[in-house]
Amino acid sequence: MKILIVHAHPEPQSFCSALRDLAVETLQGQGHEVRQSDLHALEWNPVASAADFSERQNPDYLVYALEQREGVKAGKIAPDIQRELEKLLWADLLILNFPLYWFSVPAILKGWIDRVLVSGICYGGKRFYDQGGLAGKKALVTLTLGGREHMFGEGAIHGPLEDMLRPLLRGTLAYVGLDVLPPFVAWHVPYISDDARQDFLRDYQARLQGLEQDAPLVFPRLDQFDDRLYPLAR
């Protein structure tokens, strides 16, 4: 496979960065081609703005998604977005590697999503879920967090981790057509022993070695809905 890892941690010596490094080593060792986008090393600009277009279809009023669509077609989109978009379209598998911040992704990663998943290519009109522009590709979310595993789930103090990840897994990755694999989670990372961290690394390596056997999560398909997107009778 061709694999793009988008990494969003500011500390190169972090355990999150160790997961990224392990992924590169393991996947390349299996013969896959791996490219990276280390967002902090790139000094990635997370802010979607009018500055993302060297020329606009409507210079008087910014509709960002529409300008994305026209900017890509006309070659008027910012060079940093174009470079990341080319990597994304090249890849068969997208890995997002990040620490959980406030029940969500870090701002720098959210900004990569906002700016790179461009309208007209990744989605648009009824081109979403299984009909999305990135259909046929896969995505894996790899995350670290400080909480203990028992703090997440039905009835737990923080509720299910899946609820926190829903905007990412469903509203972003599945929405643009990616087959979303179950996430890999390293729990309580800042507070555990080195032996426990090594256990997570071994588990992650085993997971990476078996990615092609992973069944993706289930999300809506457009053939389950009518032309107005009302659910069809079961």
From TrEMBL:
Entry keyword annotation includes Oxidoreductase: yes
InterPro entries reported in the protein's UniProt record: Flavodoxin_fold, Flavoprotein-like_sf, NAD(P)H_dehydrogenase_qn
Residues covered by the Flavodoxin-like fold domain: 1-208
Keyword field: Oxidoreductase
Zinc found in the keyword field: no
A Pfam family: Flavodoxin_2
Family affiliation: Belongs to the NAD(P)H dehydrogenase (quinone) family.
Protein name: NAD(P)H-dependent oxidoreductase
